[in-house]
Amino acid sequence: MSYLWVTIGSAIGGLLRYVITRLTLTLSVNFPLGTVLINVFGSFVIGYFGTLTLQSGKDPASDNLRLFVMVGLCGGFTTFSSFSLQTFDLMRSGAWGRAVANVAFSVVLCVAAVAAGHRVAQIQTSQTAIAETAEEEFTG
Length: 140
Fold this sequence. Notes:
Blueprint: H1 2-23, H2 33-52, H3 63-77, H4 80-92, H5 96-124
Helix pairs in contact: 1-3, 2-3, 2-5, 4-5
C-alpha cells in the first residue's frame, strides 16, 4: 500500500510543480527563479512536516502519510533534475555567473529552508529528529 501512496503523492507533487513553473515563467526569463522557489518551498515542507509528524511528535502520522508527503509529494514537487538541466544550460550559454548563483542559491536556500521548517515545527514540539525510516532519510 505504501507504493500507492508514494505514487499518488508524486503525481500531485509533479502537477503542482508544473502549475507553479507555468505561473512563474515571466519571472524566470534570465534566471530559473521558479525552480529555486519550488525547491526552497519543498525543502521547508519536508523539514516542517517531518518534524511535526514523528511517531513521538506533536502530531504523529502514519508511515503511509509520511511517505505520501515526504517521499511522494515533496519528491515529485522538488526539481533536482530541472535544477541540474537549467544550471547546465546557463553554463553552456556562457552565463557562468548565473549558473554559480543558481547552484549557490539553490543549495544554501534549500538547506536553510529544511532547517527553518524544522525550527518552526520545533516551536510546536520538542522533537529533534525529522525522519524515522530509511526511505525518509539517509542515515549512513
